[in-house]
Amino acid sequence: MTKFRHKVFDDRHLTRLKEIMRAVCADFETDLVEFNGDGEHVHLLVNFPPKVALSKLVNSLKGVSSRRMRQDFPDLVRHYYRANKLWSASYFAGTVGGAPLTVLRQYIEQQNRPG
Question: Which residues form the Transposase IS200-like domain (predicted)?
Answer without folding.
Answer: 1-111
